[in-house]
Write a structure and sequence with these properties.
about 280 residues, alpha/beta, two-stranded antiparallel sheet, about 15% strand
Length: about 280
């Protein structure tokens, strides 16, 4: 619509085109691009009128709801309260707080994931015996996640992004993982020493519930400056399968989710009990 109307607007003396909407997710290209243009060039030809709650506002507080409404009444507060208990957090934030989200029906609420963040998570060392998973991206890059035990009940994760498989292999060898989880298309090209397991949709489906519980219980920890990991985790959308399980769906996610899949693979594998060491008994 915008592309078709713009040429005809040039013939008018003072043309106006109005775009009116609540906030969206990372797939809402049109409104987002005009909003960014208005913020970047306040003296340009785009007027921005916005009522929205600040990103740090508590989404369950009525004081936050009022930020996103030019008019506030008792009836509107009552209605908004009822929607806050009936809608997923991401959808409520978008529609009633006018806050931009990665995915309206994302796998994880942004607040739940943020609660797992730490100021810094150092890269794993070989002594940590990390589990490493690798997935390929549509642009040829390789995405990876390392996961390892941190203390008694925490699991730390750290993401990696490589421009090519060759660079990925070099870093993987330095990490000396206890297990290397690879998607089928990468298996033939790995010639290192780490024990390899093939992973895919089945493993992601079987591990999703357990990993979700670890995140909800705040037993997972990641570095707050790992922005690519956060983007993938919040863009991931989970869909139900015919057998009652759920799995992350690249098709229904508004952005890339390769790192989210790697988190599920690595954390689920890390949760498995370690194999007992063989005991040699002298006769």
């Amino acid at each position: 619509v915008e592309t078709a109307i713009s040429p005809t607007m040039s013939a008018r003396e003072q043309p106006q085109m109005w775009l009116i909407s609540t906030a969206g997710d990372s797939s809402s290209d049109l409104l987002r691009s005009y909003r960014e243009a208005a913020v970047a060039a306040p003296d340009g030809d785009v007027l921005l009128l916005e009522w929205s709650a600040p990103p740090e506002a508590d989404w369950q507080e009525p004081a936050s709801w009022r930020w996103a409404s030019p008019e506030w009444t008792d009836r509107r507060e009552e209605f908004t309260r009822s929607r806050s208990t009936a809608m997923p957090q991401a959808a409520f934030r978008s529609q009633y707080l006018n806050q931009w989200t990665m995915a309206l029906n994302g796998w994880l609420p942004a607040g739940v994931w943020a609660a797992c963040g730490a100021a810094r998570v150092a890269a794993p060392k070989p002594k940590d015996q990390p589990v490493v998973a690798l997935e390929t991206g549509a642009d040829g890059r390789v995405f990876g996640v390392s996961a390892w035990r941190r203390g008694k009940d925490k699991i730390a994760v750290r993401s990696h992004v490589w421009p090519s498989p060759d660079q990925a292999w070099r870093d993987v060898e330095r990490l000396r993982p206890s297990r290397l989880l690879l998607v089928p298309e990468l298996v033939p090209y790995y010639g290192g020493r780490a024990p390899v397991q093939t992973v895919g949709t089945r493993e992601a489906r079987l591990g999703l519930g357990a990993v979700e519980r670890v995140i909800n219980d705040r037993r997972l920890v990641y570095s707050q400056d790992d922005h690519t990991l956060t983007a993938h985790m919040l863009a991931a959308v989970a869909r139900s399968n015919q057998d009652g399980t759920r799995s992350l769906s690249p098709k229904h996610s508004p952005g890339p989710i390769e790192l989210a899949k790697c988190v599920v693979w690595t954390v689920a594998e890390t949760l498995k009990p370690a194999s007992p060491r063989p005991v040699v008994v002298a006769g």
